Amino acid sequence: MTRPMRSAALRGLVVPVTLIATAEIAGRAAHLDSLTIALPSHIVVALAQALADGSLLQATAETLWAVLAGVALGTAFGLALGLALGLARPLDRLLAVLIELLRPIPTVALIPLVILVAGLGYLTEITIVAFGTMWPVFVISRSAILGVEPRLFEVADALGFSWPQRIQKFVLPSIAPRIFLAFRLAVGFALIIAVTVEITTNPLGLGNAMVVAQNALNPALTLAVLVWIGAIGWLFSRLLIIVERVAFPGMGSAVRS
Amino acid sequence: MRRVAWWLASLGVVALVIYAWHLLAAAAVISPVFLPSPQRVWTALSRGIQSGALTGYALQTVVHMFWGWFAASCAAILLGSIIGMSPTIQAYLQPSLEAMRPLPASATIPIFTLALGLNDGLVLTVIAFGAIWPTLLATIYGFESVDERHYEVAAALGMSKFDIVRKIALPSALPDILAGMRVSVTIALILTIVCEMIAGVGGLGQWILNAGRTFRADNLFAGILMLGLLGLISTNLIIGTERYMLRWKQA
């Protein structure tokens, strides 16, 4: 790390560290014994305990399973739809109104419907995550295909390529960086959607762990789970940005993360 | 001419899908408990609108969503202006803001519930907290990308800091701010629904949750349709406003 970078990172830490220290000192001075907020040190203790007894890791595994399965399905559907509509212009035009009508439906509005059909559990959560992550992947992959150099298709015509060959040799390689970007965004959405479904109704995972802690009037544990969710979200986005930089060097600067 | 023809054909596809839905429901391939016929949904929709029940719930959703979004936008533009005008404040605050942004806003509901209880205050707080980020970061970014020479001119004219914000920085950051506010509207609608489901303060979120729990699939579909309509209208309203306010850019 170079010197200006390090000092920038230090300056970024000043505000949060001051706030946390002030909260701790003020809370201790006032002998805080509250059912609504907790001392920072108590949050750390609650987090360590929940990690040590395995309950938090269990909840994390549940949420991540729903996130990964949902993202895999959502990306597959979104990519298939994006490829189909991006490559077949008449189909794109025919489905335009239908998609314009379906897309504004907020994903969370489907929670009661999916629960009615599939009951509480993984199936419901995965379905909703898949539906929610399908749209960004679809929109980005469709517009990526529309941006593919038209002369590549002329080359494919001249070479007498079949459609599967065209997709494999020309289309996928030229849209791969943007598909990965779509995937990265989808993972971020998926975590948000999964936690939302869990907080609303589904008795699974980290969202549910927060609701249970809240109902037990345990603010330290509630906040500890929130911090943990934030840390996981941050870790995932950092990890995917690093993968993106390695896999598609030179693309990172084009996208503001 | 061709575009109109394609659009009509596309509308025809929607009609076909609804007809297929009708056939599917009539053949009872999928249990009518889950999949009501289009006619039943239409009846539920018109009954809800005529009795005023559905429109009343929709109005509550609009009120929650609008005030939450409005509060978030005002706070975001104010804070964004302060942070954007001062590189020092920005250096100290930006990392914290970037770290908090990816936090799922719905995950703050249990925290705010402990502090505020289940009421309209909770709904507004959660919406405002979740919807503030796109506008806030867009405002900061917009202030950053103001042409340096504009500030030099302002300094030469001896303009006050307040005048610089009002006359130079805000107008040139406007496209970014409006784009941020458009994303915020979508987030506000999602959080409104989630909060209404959890807090039971009325609104379409509570409507669809109750419909699902009482196995009233017709009311459930009617509620989802209303929410889709709200999403469509709110996004198009702000896109229209954006075009109107930025009409000088196209010229």
Radius of gyration of chain B, rounded?
23 Å
* Count of alpha/pi helices of chain B: 11
- Round the mean pLDDT of chain A to the nearest integer and report it: 87
Tell me the radius of gyration of chain A.
23 Å
Find the structural class of chain B using helix and strand composition.
mainly alpha
Oligomer: heterodimer
Number of strands of chain A: 0
H/E element order of chain B: HHHHHHHHHHH
Give the N-terminus to C-terminus distance of chain B in angstroms.
26 Å
CATH architectural type of chain A: Orthogonal Bundle
CATH class of chain A: Mainly Alpha
Question: Into which percentage range does the β-strand content of chain B fall?
Answer: under 5%
Molecular structure report:
- The complex is a heterodimer of chains A (257) and B (251).
- Chain A is an all-alpha fold and 257 residues long.
- Chain A is 81% helix and 0% strand.
- Chain A has a single domain (43-249), classed as MetI-like fold (Orthogonal Bundle).
- The two termini of chain A are 20 Å apart.
- With 251 residues, chain B is mostly helical.
- Chain B folds into two domains: 1-30; 34-250, Orthogonal Bundle (MetI-like fold), CATH 1.10.3720.
- Helices cover 84% and strands 0% of the residues of chain B.
- Chain B contains eleven helices and no strands.
- Chain B has helices at residues 2-26, 38-51, 53-85, 87-100, 109-116, 120-144, 148-156, 161-199, 204-213, 217-245, 247-250.
- In chain B, helix 2 crosses helix 10 (217-245), helix 3 packs parallel to helix 6 and helix 5 (109-116) crosses helix 6.
- The longest helix of chain B has 39 residues, at 161-199.
- Chain B is globular, with a radius of gyration of 23 Å.
- The two termini of chain B are 26 Å apart.
- The model of chain B has no long low-confidence stretch (mean pLDDT 89).
- Classes of the chains: A mainly alpha (257), B mainly alpha (251).
- Chains A and B meet through helix 1, helix 4, helix 5, helix 8 and helix 9 of A and helix 1, helix 4, helix 5, helix 8 and helix 9 of B.
